[in-house]
Amino acid sequence: MTSISQLEKWWLDPDNQAFFKANKNQDVAKLLFKYQNQEQKRLIIEQIAKRQKIRKKLPQWCENQEVLMPPSLNLEQASSEATARLKATLFSGARLADLTGGFGVDCFYLGQNFKQVHYNEPDAALQELVAYNYKVLDFKATFTGLPAEKLLASLPKQSLIYLDPSRRNAQQQRLISIEDYSPDVRNLEEDLVEKAALTVVKVSPMASIAELLKKLTYVKTVSVISVKNECKEVLLTLSNSYQNLSYKTYNIIDSEGTIQFFEGTPKAAAFEFSEPQDYIFEPNASVLKAGLVNDLSRHFQLPKLHANTQLLTGSVIPEKFPGKVFKVNALHKPFTKSLAKKRYNVIARNFPANASEIEKKLNLKPSNRQYLLAFSSVEGKHFATAEWIKA
Asked: What is the mean pLDDT of the chain?
């Protein structure tokens, strides 16, 4: 299949669509065994398998039975619908150019707020598949298949350039350091800020933000996006217009897209320090990744338990706290025998033993909302039994 028309002819064939509809919720392993000698059926079963795997990641695209899924690696590397929709609320303008289009999820959602959209993907087969999907989804874009560096040289001025560089080597191992990405953003940075009012670069969520800022010159905003308290994306917004560096954090906490937001600076000092009070607060993963716990402490006037313990405490619950809130039931000496064989989820912060070690030593079972918090405070090491009551 090498063209949009061939993709349409194959996938929208009435017999193929009927087979897909009849089997889209069936056991894939059983289907593959049953149709092991029928190549066309196996291709459709592969589509079923991919959809089953990413239903939660891309619900809108999976609901449209005409959409085709790409090779598994491209699907794995694609942004989720939740993070793409969030990014789409942050940017708008006249022209968008996605230099590293991939499966086209980010380009599709970002592009809703731009008058002209340019999708670029050197992989010809993937570009054809995305062009077919965009047609199905009634989304218009200009398509090119050049290396990002070559396209950038001829690209007219853009409102936004978006890059999600490849973070895999030839062995498909994940890469963290920006100098290992393809394309190498460091070499393109000057051209990027000349060609666009803003450039957004998606980097590994495992990358050190401090190291990224040492290697790039024009970062104006660091954005960290989590989904249900798991860090998913770090975005660097580049611009040659002068502006103080800002850190913005987002945590999508439910399927409705409810967001915890906090903006601050890592240079802030903690509000103060305190022994555990009525409540203990755990900042969400985005705040932790951005290094904004001290700023969070000052903003909400919540003391930290210890300089190196990323937990806060207080006697009241502030509105819109970006993280989890625990109601402290009791404080205990570490590894008190009375806690053994109970039901607690464990969180360990600045404590000699990690959560798994504590669970094993006390023979704990999981709980729905009851937690055992292990931490160091200004006075020493503690266990706190607590109930998770918010976010």
From this structure: 94
Phi (first) and psi of residue 315, to 5 degrees: -105, -10
Residue 148 has pLDDT above 60, yes or no: yes
What are the tokens at 309?
């313990």
Tell me which residue range forms the domain holding 71: 4-75
Q: Is the pLDDT of residue 2 over 60?
A: no
Domain shared by 59 and 98, yes or no: no
Confidence of residue 1 (pLDDT cuts 50, 70, 90): very low
What is the token pair recorded at 246?
Answer: 């800002």
Secondary structure, 3-state, 309-338: EEEEEECCCCCCCCEEEEEEEEEECCCCHH
- What domain count does the chain have? 3
Taking the model in full, what pTM does it have? 0.93
Q: Is 123 left (phi over 0), alpha (psi -120 to 50) or beta?
A: beta
Q: How far apart are CA 31 and CA 189, in angstroms?
A: 49
Kindly state whether residues 185 and 97 are assigned to the same domain: yes
Find the radius of gyration of the CA atoms of the chain: 24
% of the chain surpassing 70 pLDDT:
98
Residue with the two structure tokens 């999820």:
105
Kindly indicate the confidence band of residue 324, based on its pLDDT and cuts at 50, 70 and 90: very high
Q: Report the C-alpha gap between 229 and 217 in whole angstroms.
A: 30
- Judgement on whether residues 246 and 299 belong to the same structural domain of the protein: no
Q: Which two tokens stand for residue 113?
A: 């707020």
